[in-house]
Amino acid sequence: MIYDAIIIGKGPAGISAALYTVRANMKTLVFGTGKSALDKADKIENYYGFSQPISGEKLLEEGENQLLRLGGEMRDEEVISISKEELFQVSTTTGTWQSHAVLIATGQKNVNIGIRNLKKFEGKGVSYCTTCDGFFYRGKKAGVLGFNDFALHEAKELLPFTKDITLFTNGKATSFSKDTESILQQLAMNETPIRSFEGEEFLEKILFEDGSVFSLDGIFIAYESASSTTFALKMGILMQDQYIVTDQNQRTNIDGLYAAGDCTGVFKQISVAVGQGAIAGRNMIEYIRKQKQ
Ligand SMILES: Cc1cc2nc3c(=O)[nH]c(=O)nc-3n(C[C@H](O)[C@H](O)[C@H](O)COP(=O)(O)OP(=O)(O)OC[C@H]3O[C@@H](n4cnc5c(N)ncnc54)[C@H](O)[C@@H]3O)c2cc1C
Question: Is the full-model pTM beyond 0.85?
């Protein structure tokens, strides 16, 4: 089945956009993992329409219920890749869905991996994009840093280039779906906590907390979850710093692909995310109608 709109993120920006697309009779699918910035907000007092403080959790719940009441469809899954052929292809570990338009409303990812020198070697052996850089590691010794399905997805993308891949979990508990067994079998695994990345100009080795060392040519970071940066690097979406660049209609540089909310680096507030979501939704409707004419 082809969706009109796929929305990645069920925070205020994503749900707000979906309210518009659904009410315009657009077949809409929203993906979200439940990790919204709002989960951490205990008391919200500055959002319009609530005379008493409301918790972030409650606001999110109300938003989701509002969308479901109007006929929106939601899947509690993490999107690990987006690509565009004639239509957009949006994949999780359980399947791939197609749509005419996509909105990225994934919020801001704040993960401090805490490995010394990680930043120093970015672009010099540390990569965030197997699609972009996998080719450079043909037949070489590569690593993937991560501990869940997202990391396995990246390792799978790397396998056509090299069979010498080690999954470094940095001491984190792993969490893999059952159907990933065949990928895991093709990888070596190192579960030791990492202290630092080492090398002269380029990454040469990993130094672990227990004092051991592992030499390698490069490592791909696929830590925790796929973020707007992951999608941007793979699809060539224009970014400024770590944020997606949009025009005033929330359009990115890729036709049919929109972004809204904290992932665009605006004033990080619910009202702004909801407003940008509404603008994105409105413009996606126009775009989809034209595509289907
Ligand atoms: C502690 C705290 C307190 C705050 N208090 C206030 C306040 O009082 N007032 C105010 O206006 N703002 C407040 N904010 C800011 C506000 O929470 C954000 O501006 C707002 O939530 C941004 O909405 P968003 O939809 O852009 O992103 P988010 O709300 O962060 O939602 C992102 C969504 O994307 C999903 N997602 C991410 N990656 C993927 C993926 N790969 N696949 C599928 N889904 C994915 C997540 O599951 C989530 O549903 C607070 C923030 C924090 C952290």
Answer: yes
